[in-house]
Amino acid sequence: MRKNGATGAEIEFMFRDFDTMRSTRRVELNAMTSPQFIAFVERKLTEHGLKKIVPDKHQLADAYRLFVRSEAAEQVARRELKKLDGDAAVQVPREIEKQVRQHLKRHPADRWDAAVRQIAARKG
């Protein structure tokens, strides 16, 4: 235990009753529920003085810009998807099955959905 970084107090705790019980005190972390384990870890971090880290203002500014751009991109995507107006707005080629089979013949390692994607990309 000492070789792996245990303190003398930790070793004493684990082997306190060893002479009478012939066993060590085990802590089975996987026996805890997820909420119990999270509470345990958070309590131990707090006990050892660990606190949340807030990056410097440059990192915060970069993160802010990223989140604003991401939100703007999502709004654009939502707006454009609404313009498609469901299945009727997208015209599926009449011979889609034939095109997929031809693609798979030329590219036998591809999956059928990859073939459909390629055909759709050529349309756009």
Notes on the protein architecture:
- The chain folds into 3 domains: 2-47, no CATH class; 53-90; 91-124, no CATH class.
- The chain has 6 helices and no strands.
- Helix 5 crosses helix 6 (112-123).
- The model has no long low-confidence stretch (mean pLDDT 86).
- The protein is an all-alpha fold and 124 residues long.
Offer a quick outline of the entry:
By secondary structure, the chain is an all-alpha fold. It contains six helices and no strands.
Shape: elongated
Whole-number average pLDDT?
A: 86
The SSE order reads HHHHHH
Number of domains: 3
Total of DSSP H or I helical runs spanning 4+ residues: 6
Which stretches are poorly predicted, pLDDT < 50 over at least 5 residues?
none
Question: Which structural class fits the helix and strand makeup?
Answer: mainly alpha
Task: Let me know the largest β-sheet.
Answer: none
Distance between the termini: 64 Å
Q: Classify the helix fraction into a percent range.
A: 55-70%
Cα-based radius of gyration, to the nearest Å: 30 Å
Strand content: under 5%
Count all strands and give the number: 0
